[in-house]
Design goal:
This protein has 310 residues and is α/β, with parallel strands linked by helices. It contains 9 helices and 11 strands. Strands 3-2-1-4-5-6-7 form a 7-stranded parallel β-sheet, with helices on both faces. It has a 4-stranded antiparallel β-sheet with strand order 9-10-8-11, with helices on one face. The longest helix has 21 residues.
Length: 310
């Protein structure tokens, strides 16, 4: 199974931008009231986004794209990432999440779900945000304690929130954020555009082609990630095997008569995936594949001649 982490970047960034503006103008509530036949025209607690500060948590593909789009609207951008990142435009890195929360009018999360990001926004973090600030989450549902967010939306400490992801999906009317004031909810549609889906299809298809022609498994989510560059001057052995000690020793015994120019192995708890390149040699025959397949740990073996060039 291949992942396509970049293809929906623009779609997610645009969705966040649109909802930052909508939250600042209470568009969600105004839309609901209009459908109910209520005319509640007001400028109270409605703002332009120009000159406000957007704090981006996670400055990866989506976060950095959001940074560029936000500056075009006149937002000041700060960001926090556990990995040092080059700021784009006039964006400025801050040294801690607490520093970002204290300075931001809008906080937007763009992080993966890990042990570090589990409930990274909870009561302690919300109370470090400005009173009257806004929270956006289109990253991962379990990064935020939504019950706590609902509490501070209802008591007015948070001025609004946008959520596209939730700890448990799909949701229903009992979900904590339902009916909170100035809260816009969407059903995990960050990458649900025609452009993103087309890009994802092309990207995943190209990765499947690279796997067939080169044995590359980069961006595979359920299999060890390994890759070697195309090479017309080698034979490449691709082997999947059970992850047990001593397997490489057996492989090296089989290949001891050949010049091994590259060898890459990656494992997960159950399986290992091995790529071995040997210099093109007329003595190399199907007997080599047979010897690999006879190893008790071996699951499957494939051989590519001039990998990436056929």
């Amino acid at each position: 199974v291949f992942n396509s982490p970049f293809a929906n970047t623009r779609s997610v960034a645009e969705l966040i931008i649109s909802n930052i503006i909508a939250l600042a103008r209470k568009v969600g509530d105004q839309n609901k009231w209009m459908h109910q036949g209520q005319w509640k025209k007001t400028a109270v607690q409605c703002y332009e986004v120009r000159g406000k500060t957007l704090g981006i948590v996670g400055y990866g593909h989506v976060g950095s794209q959001l940074s560029v789009l936000s500056e075009a609207l006149g937002l000041k951008v700060i960001f926090y990432d556990i990995i040092p990142k080059l700021p784009l435009g006039n964006a400025r890195a801050v040294s801690s999440l607490d520093e970002l929360l204290a300075q931001s009018d809008f906080v937007s999360l763009h992080v993966p779900y890990t042990k570090l990001t589990n409930n990274m926004i909870d009561e302690e973090q919300i109370l470090k945000m400005k009173k009257g600030s806004y929270l956006c989450n289109a990253a991962r549902g379990k990064c935020v304690n939504i019950e706590t967010v609902a509490k501070y939306l209802k008591n007015g400490y948070l001025a609004g929130a946008y959520f596209d992801v939730y700890p448990s999906e799909p949701t229903n009317e009992t979900m904590a954020l339902c009916n909170c004031p100035n809260t816009i909810l969407t059903p995990h549609i960050g990458g649900s555009t025609q452009e993103a889906q087309s890009n994802i299809g092309l990207d995943v298809a190209s990765k499947i082609v690279k796997f067939i022609n080169e044995g590359a498994t980069i961006a595979c989510v359920n299999f060890p990630e390994v890759s070697l560059e195309p090479n017309a001057k080698v034979h490449r052995i691709l082997n999947v095997h059970r992850n047990v000690p001593g397997f490489l020793k057996k492989v090296n015994n089989i290949l001891c008569e050949f010049n091994v120019s590259a060898q890459v192995l990656k494992t997960n708890p159950e399986l290992g995936y091995l790529l071995v390149e040997i210099d093109a040699n007329p003595k190399f025959s199907s007997d080599i594949k047979q010897k690999f397949e006879e190893l008790e740990e071996s699951v499957r073996t494939r051989i590519l001649f001039a990998p990436g060039y056929r």
